[in-house]
Amino acid sequence: MTKRTIGAVESYYGRPLDHADRLDLVRWLGSHGFNAYAYGPKDDPYHRERWREPYPQAELEQLRELCEFGRSVGVDIGLGVSPGLDWKGPDDDAALATKLRSLSQVGATLMAVAWDDVPRPSGEPAAALGAEHGRAIAAAMEAVSDDASWMAVPIDYAGNVVTPYLRAFSDALPGEIGIAWTGPGIVSVDVPASTARDLAEQLGRKLLFADNFPVNDGPMSGTLHLGPYPEREAALVDEVSGVFFNFMPNKPIASRVGLGCAAAWWNDPSSDRDQTWLELVRSFDGLEPLARACRSWVSDPAIDPELLAMAADGRLLPWLIEGCRAGLDPKLEAEVEPWLDQWEWEGMALQCALIAKMLPTHELKFLTATFWQIARRTLYNVFGIRLAMYPVTSTADAGFSVLPEALVQGENLTDVLCREAITGA
Fold first, then answer.
1. Any idea which architecture 5-281 has in CATH?
2. Contacts for 252-255 with beta carbons within 8 Å, 24 or more apart?
3. pTM to 2 decimals?
4. Where are the domains of the chain?
5. Are 261 and 8 in contact (CB under 8 A)?
6. Which residue from 113, 186, 376, 385 lies 20 to 30 Å from 338 (Cα-Cα)?
7. DSSP of 296-328
8. In terms of Cα–Cα distance, which of 224, 155, 174 is closest to 381?
């Protein structure tokens, strides 16, 4: 790719965005440091499960409108297919070219072919599979023959080694195509610049970093990611060809916190992550109470330090009484409703705990315990992470191996203060 791409990608598992919401998100991205948007939701049947079939005319016109709107706000629109569930080899070359040509004709300036999250055919050597996947994309590029940029997602899209599949895949592709890489893991806690550099040297091309943040699909679905962008090495920016961020399913407004923080850092790695986060959160009316409660991510699952300070100096109780919904945009409120409900249950338990610490009667302790039990009957994490499973992985011979860091288990603010109020310790 000739320019540094900073993009968002709609590639999660779950219902694709509504068309109007997608347009509004692209508009916002164009004004917040992004220059690309890739469309590829796993549950769009014409993108993945029924990829050979043409898009119905109404949906094709929506994609055309998306491409035209993207141009008007300075955001390149990427369209593509994910044919790996039932790829038939060279016999499918014509179908792939036809489908991609139809997407090029509606104005896509970035074309994509994704092989991620598909089963490996039994008995086929990894190198042969990689060569076939790369060959198919190269053939499609030649058949479509347009001026668009291209990106590809291999089966081995995560890891810190060049696998036989990845080497053969890369060798079969033209040098200008971007190969997506999510870092050492599917969700990567650390992304060393040295790892990106080493992979680039072995493959003869820089990789396109596909950061799985702030997405929360699959086993992460109970945790809303409204916190700062994870810490990354500043040197990483120069070791990859660009970056895409995968956002949260059907949360086009809530995802803007994480997306905005991420783009701000990639546009200026010297920027203050926490200050950027706070300014962005405060640009959304009424969001700060929930954002402080949902600040956690796998690398930083702890309680927001400002909430701990508020508990220590007496500010927490009146803050909790004010609630978490005042001023929220109704559309944003609808996106995050389960976490708002959970905030309110936890808020009642916290209020009881704070009062019980001041007036340690038996009645208040039992009331605290009652609300604490209710607050724990959920999968939604607020005020810190109690339990979550992230796809933090490493490369293994048979695919991915889950690392111990994937399991996040601990106490949130409610657990800490309720336990202190009840036990006096």
1. Alpha-Beta Barrel (3.20)
2. 252/17, 252/21, 252/22, 252/24, 252/25, 252/335, 253/284, 253/329, 253/331, 253/332, 253/335, 254/224, 254/226, 254/332, 254/335, 254/336, 255/25, 255/214
3. 0.95
4. 5-281, 288-423
5. no
6. 186
7. -BTTB-SPPHHHHHHHHHT-HHHHHHH-S-TT-
8. 224
Burial class of residue 286 in the structure, from the number of CB atoms within 10 Å of its CB (0-12 exposed, 13-18 middle, 19+ buried): middle
CA distance 120 to 87: 11
Which SS3 state, helix, strand or coil, does residue 25 take?
helix
Confidence tier at 46 by pLDDT (50, 70, 90): very high
| CA triple 241-244-249, angle to 5 deg | 170
Q: Is 233 exposed, middle or buried (0-12, 13-18, 19+ CB in 10 A)?
A: middle
pLDDT tens per residue across span 207-260:
999 999 999 999 999 999 999 999 999 999 999 999 999 999 999 999 999 999
Cα 203 from Cα 161, distance rounded (Å): 11
Give 386-409 pLDDT, tens digit per residue: 999 999 998 765 567 899 999 999
Supply the pLDDT for residue 121.
85
Residue 1 in tokens: 């790719």
Q: How far apart are CA 49 and CA 52, in angstroms?
A: 9
C-beta separation of 114 from 99 below 8 A: no
Three-class SS state of 396: strand
Q: What percent of the chain has pLDDT over 90?
A: 93
pLDDT at 119: 85
- Which candidate, 311, 296, 306, places its Cα nearest to that of 416? 311
Q: What is the pLDDT of residue 123?
A: 84
Contact 127, 168 (CB under 8 A): yes
Using alpha carbons, select from 237, 213, 216, 254 the residue that is nearest to residue 337: 254
Tens digit of each residue's pLDDT (9 = 90 or more) over 252-290: 999 999 999 999 999 999 999 999 999 999 999 999 999
In terms of DSSP bridges, do strands 5-10 and 240-246 run parallel, antiparallel, or are they unpaired?
parallel
**Residue 69, SS3 per DSSP:** helix
Contacts of residue 332, defined as CB under 8 A and 6 or more positions apart, other chains included, come to: 253, 254, 284, 287
Q: Cβ atoms within 10 A of the Cβ of 361, count? A: 10
Domain 288-423 CATH class label: mainly alpha
Q: Is the pLDDT of residue 292 over 60?
A: yes
**Beta strand pairing status for 393-396 and 399-402?**
antiparallel
CA atoms of 240 and 255, how far apart (whole Å): 24
Per-residue pLDDT at 51: 97
**Can you name the residues that pair with 417 across neighbouring β-strands?**
none
Distance in angstroms (rounded) separating the CA atoms of residues 126 and 169: 10
